[in-house]
Amino acid sequence: MTDATPEGGQRRLRAGVIGLGWAGQQHVAAYAADPTVDLVALSAMEEHLLDRFGEEHDVPGRYQDWKQMIAEAELDVVSIATPTFLHRPMAVHALEAGLHVIAEKPMAETGEAAADMVSAARAAGRVLDVSFNHRRRGNVTALKSVVDSGVLGKLYYAKTGWVRRQGIPGLGTWFTKAASAGGGAMMDIGIHMLDMTLHLMGEPEVTAVSASTHAEFGPLGRGGSGFGVSQVEEGVPFEVEDLATAFLRLDGGGTMLLESSWAQWIPHDLCYVTLYGADGGAHIEWGGDAARPQITVWTEVAGMPAELQPAVGEDGHHAAAVADFLQKVRSGDTAAHDGSLALRRAQVIDACYASAEAGGEVAVAR
Ligand SMILES: NC(=O)c1ccc[n+]([C@@H]2O[C@H](COP(=O)([O-])OP(=O)(O)OC[C@H]3O[C@@H](n4cnc5c(N)ncnc54)[C@H](O)[C@@H]3O)[C@@H](O)[C@H]2O)c1
């Protein structure tokens, strides 16, 4: 299935990608640019996308039937970038066939589905990873270094959000159906900010949440962005939220406020994280005023209040997420990379929807 590089270096890996919307295209680009990988197979419903990306990257295997791809293409690794409700069946099948899997976020439509994926990875002894590409942004990795330096002291509070003015993806496609997407703005973009902020805070467990959801734009056919390559179906009801807000309790006594919206009457789209520590605070944002520094840190220097603006490195995005996945595969340490961290994110999102439904605080299931 694999062969060594001529220089005796890293084992070459045979990669495939299922799904060729925006997300799948990022995985295709990441594998195509990696000299240690052979991108050998693609699967999607759209023949024109199979042809386009197959020709662009000289990919021999092109399949409308993803199971046929897994049976025939002799893959080591596969990226799953299909509508969210397909992540579980595709990942479980691929893992059982002996492949290492990276799925797009959200990991699955429910925590239960995500747990099935983790169980399959453990049983197969294969890596299961989830693509949290936004935590690879230069400002996020730089802020992580700031946090890890200890300059902010103990972190006890965070505010974070991704809010859009008009950005409902695929109105009338799988994106806005409850069963196929699992949820709306919180599931789609809130999950990135949840992941990033917990990562920045050093992975505290979320113990309980109190959340609310609203749908003021989608049901009226307003706020759409036209994102996605999937077919729009006439008359599909808008079954998910276009705004979700949540208050999260963290073990150790910390708290987090998380907001996510696909559409809102606001001046412009914005992503932000503000961290509050005992010895300093820090803020990153993007999508707003471009002139703002990418990180601001407030602390004391020589007993005086100080505002610092650390230098920010390059963005990593999907290429970095895929490179990380490949490194996990090559490490051979499948037990350490079974998708558990992404499962915990899915359980928090589950709890947010349960809380919104119940109208009160709920504990996060484990
Ligand atoms: N990480 C990110 O920043 C990011 C951004 C966008 C989307 N996503 C995630 O990626 C996933 C896909 O989103 P998208 O926007 O690319 O969706 P999309 O609707 O634009 O594309 C979906 C793709 O999946 C393919 N597909 C559907 N059913 C299939 C089947 N049975 N066999 C083979 N292919 C099939 C379609 O043909 C299409 O190519 C979702 O889970 C979404 O949440 C992640």
Number of beta strands: 15
Give the count of helical stretches: 10
- If strands are numbered along the chain, what order do they take across the biggest sheet? 14-13-12-11-7-10-9-8-15
The CATH homologous superfamily of the largest domain is called: Dihydrodipicolinate Reductase, domain 2
Please give the radius of gyration in angstroms. Answer: 21 Å
CATH architecture grouping of the largest domain? 2-Layer Sandwich
Please state the average pLDDT score: 95
Quote the CATH topology of the largest domain.
Dihydrodipicolinate Reductase, domain 2
Outline the biggest β-sheet: 9 strands, mixed
* The number of domains: 2
Give the low-pLDDT segments.
1-8
* Strand-pairing-aware structural class: alpha/beta
Please report the first level of CATH classification, the CATH class of the largest domain: Alpha Beta
Helix percent reads 25-40%
Strand content: 15-25%
Quick one: overall form?
globular
Name the helix and strand elements from N-terminus to C-terminus, one letter apiece: EHEHEHEHEHEHEHHEEEEEEEHHE
Bound molecules: nicotinamide-adenine-dinucleotide
Distance between the termini: 37 Å
